[in-house]
Design a protein that fits this description.
Layout lengths: L18 H15 L5 H8 L3 H9 L6 H11 L3 H8 L6 H10 L1
Amino acid sequence: MMPIRQFNRRDITVGVRNPNENVNRLLDMIISKLALKNDSALCRCLRIAPPVISKIRHGSLPVGATMLLRLHEESGMSIRELKDVLDIPVLRPDDNARKFWNA
C-alpha cells in the first residue's frame, strides 16, 4: 500500500514553474511603480506587517485575495493585470458553465 503524501502550500501551484519568481517580480514592479525604496516602505504603504512581505517572497505565505485587493488599491493596477504577472488563471463565470454543459 502506498503511503499518503501530505501537501503543504508550497506543493500547490497553478501551472507555474517557480511561483516565487512571479511573486518577487510583482512586488518589485509595485515598489518601482510607487517609487518606494524597499519592502519596508511597501509594507507601510499597504498597512501590513513587514514579516508578511518576507513570507510572501520566500513562498511560505501565498498572495491572497486581501493582498491582491490592497495591491490593486495602492498601485492602481487592475486585478487582472496583477493576476497576469502572477500567472494565475482568470476564470469567468461562463468558463465554468461551458465545462459543465460540454462534459
